[in-house]
Design goal:
single chain, 134 residues, alpha/beta, 39% helix, 18% strand, globular
Length: 134
């Protein structure tokens, strides 16, 4: 059996709508034979706007194997989510976008990112991390 890999995952999300983020973290934590490191921004740092925060964000996202993006129509109104998508593309970090239950519309920025847009089941999240990680 091959050695288990530890995936470095950055989850782009909006803290104002964090239920889907927390669900995704639970799925990743609960998956058997799956190890991961959560590089997402801690909640206490969510609204920072200074250059120190941007530097820390570059480091976190820059070391990620994959970025998971929770799709919502708030993305066009959230500077840091837009920044994360653009930075991931510049750094060639694979992105997988996930449509939570009931979501039907995808913001243009996400469509233009050229990433797979997937439905919500846990198995799709785990499969995307494994398949897209660099």
């Amino acid at each position: 059996m091959p050695k288990l890999r530890k995936y470095k995952v950055f989850i782009s999300h909006c803290w104002e709508y964090d239920a889907n983020y927390r669900t995704m973290v639970q799925w990743l934590n609960g998956q058997t034979l799956f190890r991961w490191k959560n590089l997402s921004v801690p909640e206490e740092s969510a609204l920072r706007t200074d250059k120190t925060f941007e530097k820390r964000l570059r480091k976190r996202l820059g070391s990620a194997d994959v970025m998971l993006l929770i799709v919502g129509m708030e993305i066009p109104h959230r500077y840091w989510m837009q920044w994360e998508i653009k930075w991931a593309r510049i750094r060639s970090i694979p992105i997988a976008a996930f449509m939570p239950h009931g979501a039907e519309r995808v913001p243009l920025l996400v469509q233009e990112a050229g990433c797979p847009i997937l439905r919500w089941p846990r198995d799709a999240v785990i499969a995307a991390v494994r398949a897209l990680s660099k």
